[in-house]
C-alpha cells in the first residue's frame, strides 16, 4: 500500500484545530461556509452537470474560507461513516484521510486536556 502524502499533509495541517471544541467549529462553519448561504439569484452552472464527488468538492468548496474547520468537524462527527462533500474533499478522500488524521493524536472531544 502506498502512502498518499497529500492526505498526510492535510492531517498535519488540521493539527492546529485539535483542541477547538466541536461547537466552535460548527459555529464557524455555519457562519462562514460558502455553501451555507445558498444561491438566490445566479445558480451555479455546475448544478446542471453530472460531476464526480471529487469534481463537486473542487467546485463547491473552491474559495471557502473554512475548509479546514469543515473537514475537522466532519471527521470528528462522522469518522469513516462520512458521506457527501465536506471540507473540499469527497467521501472517499475523507475515508482515506481518516487513519492519518486519527494517527495525529487526541482531539478536544476525546476527553483529554491539551
Ligand atoms: S468547505 Fe465546502 S462543504 Fe464545507 S462549508 Fe465550505 S463550501 Fe461548505
TrEMBL record:
Domain 4Fe-4S Wbl-type: 34-96
InterPro entries according to UniProt: 4FE4S_WBL (IPR034768)
The name this protein goes by in its record: WhiB family transcriptional regulator, redox-sensing transcriptional regulator
UniProt lineage: Bacteria, Bacillati, Actinomycetota, Actinomycetes, Pseudonocardiales
Amino acid at each position: 500500500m502506498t502512502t498518499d502524502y497529500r492526505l498526510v499533509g492535510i492531517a498535519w495541517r488540521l493539527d492546529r484545530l485539535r483542541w477547538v471544541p466541536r461547537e466552535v467549529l460548527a459555529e464557524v462553519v455555519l457562519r462562514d461556509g460558502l455553501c451555507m448561504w445558498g444561491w438566490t439569484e445566479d445558480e451555479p452552472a455546475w448544478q446542471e452537470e453530472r460531476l464526480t464527488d471529487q469534481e463537486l468538492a473542487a467546485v463547491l468548496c473552491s474559495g471557502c474560507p473554512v475548509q479546514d474547520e469543515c473537514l475537522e468537524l466532519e471527521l470528528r462527527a462522522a469518522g469513516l461513516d462520512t458521506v457527501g462533500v465536506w471540507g473540499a474533499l469527497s467521501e472517499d478522500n475523507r475515508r482515506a484521510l481518516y487513519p492519518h488524521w486519527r494517527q495525529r493524536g487526541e482531539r478536544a472531544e476525546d476527553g483529554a486536556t491539551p
